[in-house]
Amino acid sequence: MKSPLLVLAGLDPTGGAGLIADAVTARTLGCHPLTIPTTLTVQNSLRFEAALPVDAAYIARALTALTEEFTFDTAKIGLVPFTDGVWLDAVGPLIRSRCRHIVIDPVLKATAATGGMRPGDAFIRFISGPGTVITPNTRELALIAETLGIAPGTPEKTARAVSAATGTTVVVTFETEQPLILIAEQGGMTEIPITLIPTDRSVHGTGCRFSTAIACGLAAGMLLPAAVKRAANHLTDLFGRRDNFHPDGQDYLG
Question: Which of 88, 98, 138, 206 sits CB 3.0–4.6 Å from 122 for a disulfide?
Answer without folding.
Answer: 88
